[in-house]
């Protein structure tokens, strides 16, 4: 009786999983055959709001826009990218996942067995139209605390830029975001491993990062060999609801994840558990 109920529940979970995952069209899980077939990960949040990542491994970033660092100095992006670089599009006054994204990156690079400022560097790039070098400076103070006192100040740069230049730069990396109010944006959570002079090597999806993944991306950037990301599930800061004019949890994506977890548990119960409980031949029943 219990197994029959579990079987029925498993079938129901599969049906629900198919329905909920059908709505989670922002997620892709196929491996393209070549960088030409790099994935286009899209999320239409309603009302024409469209955010996502179009991976462009092997392409070169737009570097001609006007940018300023946390010190207020105007910088040239091509000169900033003089080493294998982890580039993080974000905005510094984000009330949600940007802080987790940047903190996760700080934690991951803190444990790297590479020399910051000599073998690699990190660049945070604000795509906000409102943010200034003062915002970049404040953000730098916050995340340098995670790295500790021994981390070189010049190894992590925080940038802001003019709106048109930032739009072209984000477009060159296939990063699509949208503004939904004063200093409020819907955006993907992703970082890029970039070779010197701006060649895109790999996309690293957040908001969490593994030190091993970061190191692999930097090694590939040092070699200048572009590759398509294995992990293509993009998380988004939040979904914008044009009717309520607020940010809401993506229920369908969450339900799909829970459903797949339930299916896995049911599989273990129906297939694995009976084999574990089965007595050996000649044993006592």
UniProtKB/TrEMBL annotation:
It comes from the Bacteria. The chain crosses the membrane at residues 251-272. Coiled coil: none annotated. Keywords: Membrane, Signal, Transmembrane, Transmembrane helix. SUPFAM superfamilies: Thioredoxin-like. Residues 1-24 form the signal peptide. InterPro entries: SCO1/SenC, Thioredoxin-like_sf. Belongs to the SCO1/2 family. This is Protein SCO1/2.
């Amino acid at each position: 009786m219990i197994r029959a109920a579990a079987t029925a529940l498993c079938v129901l979970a599969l049906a629900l999983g198919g329905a909920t995952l059908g709505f989670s069209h922002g997620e892709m899980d196929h491996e393209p055959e070549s960088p030409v077939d790099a994935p286009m990960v899209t999320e239409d949040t309603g009302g024409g709001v469209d955010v996502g990542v179009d991976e462009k491994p092997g392409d070169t970033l737009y570097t001609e826009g006007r940018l300023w660092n946390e010190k207020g100095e105007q910088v040239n992006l091509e000169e900033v990218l003089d080493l294998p670089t982890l580039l993080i599009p974000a905005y510094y006054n984000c009330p949600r996942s940007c802080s987790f994204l940047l903190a996760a990156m700080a934690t991951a690079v803190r444990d790297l067995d590479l020399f910051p400022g000599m073998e690699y560097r990190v660049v945070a790039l604000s795509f906000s139209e409102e943010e200034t070098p003062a915002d970049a400076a404040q953000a730098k103070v916050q995340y340098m605390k995670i790295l500790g006192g021994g981390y070189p100040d010049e190894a992590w740069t925080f940038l802001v830029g003019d709106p048109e230049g930032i739009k072209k730069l984000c477009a060159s990396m296939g990063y699509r975001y949208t503004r939904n109010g004063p200093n409020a944006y819907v955006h993907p959570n992703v970082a890029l491993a970039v070779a010197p002079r701006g060649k895109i090597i790999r996309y690293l999806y957040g908001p969490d990062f593994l030190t091993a993944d970061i190191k692999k991306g930097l090694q590939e950037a040092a070699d200048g060999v572009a590759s398509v990301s294995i992990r293509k599930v993009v998380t988004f800061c939040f979904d914008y609801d044009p009717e309520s004019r607020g940010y809401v949890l993506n229920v369908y994506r969450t339900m799909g994840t829970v459903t797949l977890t339930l299916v896995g548990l049911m599989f273990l119960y129906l297939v694995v558990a009976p084999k574990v409980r089965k007595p050996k031949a000649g044993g006592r029943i």
